Amino acid sequence: MLILWFVPLVSSCLALNTVGNLLNRLYFPGNQSCLLNCFGNYLCKHHIKKCTSLLKHYDLSGTDEKYEEYRKLLIYGHNGLRNRLATKLNLCDMLEIRWNDRLAMYANRHHTLCHRNIMCDAQNTRYLHMPDSEYAPYEAKNFNISRNGFFYRNTYSANFIPFALSNWYEAHTSLNFPKLIQHKNQTYYKLVGGYNSFFNMINPQTQMMGCSIAMFVDGRSLICYYYPFVHAGPKIYLRVMEKSCRCPYTFPVFDPVFKRICIYK
């Protein structure tokens, strides 16, 4: 019994170390205006204008205790929804997501540049809603990062984070139900995502995330970055295995806001 418990723990630790090493090699340009467009290229402005419509920015990077509740809620929500999917489809390899300040600082850049939403379209063009003509190209490609954005035209929303995450998860209704396929004696669900928000947040191999929250004069915005994003074009593969092999390696989340969304049977 001890061996059975120890194996997934070791696997989880090794996976985290591997991703940590990869993240150290992930390059973000020092210029605060440099952002990824939907084709995986960095685009940089020559100057940064002050965002006059930004009323308040919640910088979730670092250890500021006043924002710890936001960080925990985002982690609980993401892991809970991923657990929910793993339970419903009998999936394994659905790894636990943990917070990363570098990704949070990168998400901050969008809000300081007045970006309310950064979703690419559903036609696989991954077009970012900002005028590329204002930016200079930077030679780099990062297709191993995914991101979600949500803008809600209500500055007084009391449950903004749960509402945003539920909206991202609900985007699965616009996708076809994944097909079961066989490959090398393994069973997988093949999910064709078109890069929508559900597709971005439930990638099994994603282990790190960082987010930024902002309040503008016309509403609230949440932007999250995820790493790594393992995919084959617009497809990801979800491995199916018996109950004893299911992930995540952690138990379901029972946070009061997200209760009952992930229960093992």
Structural account:
By secondary structure, this protein is of the alpha+beta class. The protein has a single domain (34-120, 144-263), classed as CAP (Pathogenesis-related Protein p14a, 3-Layer(aba) Sandwich). Helix content is 28%, strand content 23%. The protein has helices at residues 2-24, 68-89, 101-112, 160-170, 197-201; strands spanning 35-36, 41-44, 54-58, 98-99, 136-141, 146-152, 179-183, 186-192, 208-216, 219-227, 235-240. Strands 3, 4, 6, 9 and 10 form a five-stranded mixed beta sheet that branches. The protein has a three-stranded antiparallel beta sheet with strand order 1-2-5. Strands 7-8-11 form a three-stranded antiparallel beta sheet, with no helix packed on it. α2 (68-89) packs parallel to α4 (160-170). It is globular, with a radius of gyration of 19 Å. The chain starts with a helix and ends in a 25-residue tail after the last strand. The relative contact order is 0.23. Mean pLDDT is 75; it is low at 1-16, 122-142 and 247-265.
